[in-house]
Design brief:
Layout lengths: L2 E3 L2 E3 L9 E4 L2 E3 L6 E3 L4 E5 L2 E3 L9 E3 L4 E5 L2 E2 L5 E2 L8 E3 L4 E4 L47 E9 L2 E8 L3
């Protein structure tokens, strides 16, 4: 199946309904469950968030007919089996208004897969792998949008020297 990365699936009738891999993806505010599978299909869910789907039914993932979801280092509201899978509120900024950025206290911050080799940018163009503490190991955030902990500005002070300034909040 397809590999979907750094994507937002929100505000639809259906969330995700086919086999494949969902990596660094946010599935939220869909009328039916965020992931629905039938007839032996499999979805791999990595470093992703599935929350606030199913019109308040509490059903985020619905599988039948021998289908399966293999979840790792993701958040599924209400819980779901898997390594590193969280079950609480992802603490989006304003999900009812379609703002799925993470709040500073989100459990999804620095909680994505430690083996994810991505070092590019998220859906909004923010850099991935910026640790909230600036200390290694830097881990990506779960979902499509990386929390912007800090902004760094580098000012050259000599031929091979720079002065760094930061703004924002750590953690």
């Amino acid at each position: 199946g397809p590999v979907v990365e750094d994507s937002l699936i929100a505000g639809n009738q259906y969330g995700w309904i086919s086999p494949g891999t969902l990596r660094r993806t946010t599935i939220a505010n869909n009328v039916l469950p965020g992931i629905m599978l039938e007839s032996g299909e499999t979805v791999v869910l990595e470093s992703s968030i599935v929350a606030f789907n199913g019109s308040g039914s509490g059903v985020e993932i619905a599988v039948s007919g021998g289908s399966a979801v293999a979840a790792t280092h993701s958040l599924v509201l209400g819980g779901f089996p898997g390594t590193g899978v969280l079950g609480g509120d992802p603490l989006f900024v304003q999900p009812d208004a379609g703002d799925f950025r993470l709040r500073p206290t989100s459990p999804c911050s620095d909680s994505g897969s430690p083996s994810d080799p991505v070092c590019g940018v998220d859906l909004a163009g923010a850099p991935r792998r910026v640790s909230s503490s600036f200390l290694p190991p830097a881990r990506i955030d779960m979902g499509a949008l990386e929390f912007r902990h800090v902004t760094l500005t580098a000012i050259p002070t000599g031929p091979l020297t720079w002065q760094l300034f930061s703004s924002g909040t750590l953690g």
